[in-house]
């Protein structure tokens, strides 16, 4: 009986292949499930990063720019003074920091990181609203992508918090 079932299975698979039917292929790319095209972000995460130390307050926020990968060294949460209270309470013992971003033109921008952490953006006394976000737990190139609508020429402060490590990779890209 097992032989008959095996022969029928082989015959069915062979017939399906001959007829051009597609058999499902298991996804092998852990970063292949994003709802957006993240090829620009993935290309940046394949480059050598520029190292910067995050600031402990807005005045010491390290500058970052769009279309470049950065390794950002964070500080213990207790050492960081946020200009605006983050949108999520970070656990004690986590890492945080601030970086300054000026985008060349108004538009939607993606901020991508390689680890789970909280990203807020402020251009003054309020947090910029998040337009969309997505994360894939099995991926680190990038792990999380958050979309904001930003005005050009404004110095934006990126508040990074709730990281479980002191060094993260970060990239900013324009949504096309």
Would you write up a description of this structure?
By secondary structure, this protein is mainly beta. The chain has helices at residues 2-18, 39-45, and strands at 50-53, 62-64, 69-73, 75-76, 95-102, 107-113, 118-122, 130-135, 144-150, 155-163, 167-174. It has one domain: Jelly Rolls (Sandwich). The chain is built from 2 helices and 11 strands, in the order ααβββββββββββ. The strands form 2 sheets. Strands 1-3-11-6-9-8 form a 6-stranded mixed β-sheet, with helices on one face. The protein is globular. The model is unreliable at 1-26 (pLDDT under 50).
Q: What order do the SSEs take from the amino end to the carboxyl end, as H and E?
A: HHEEEEEEEEEEE
**Number of DSSP helical runs:** 2
- Could you tell me the strand content as a percent range? 35-45%
Can you name the CATH architecture?
Sandwich
- Neighbour order of strands in the largest sheet: 1-3-11-6-9-8
**Low-confidence runs:** 1-26
Major β-sheet annotation: 6 strands, mixed
The domain count comes to 1
According to CATH, what is the topology?
A: Jelly Rolls
From the spread of the alpha carbons, the general shape counts as: globular
Distance between the termini: 58 Å
Assign a percent range to the helix content.
Answer: 10-25%
Helices and strands: which structural class? mainly beta
Using only CA atoms, what is the Rg?
22 Å
Overall pLDDT, averaged? 87
Total strands: 11
CATH secondary-structure class:
Mainly Beta
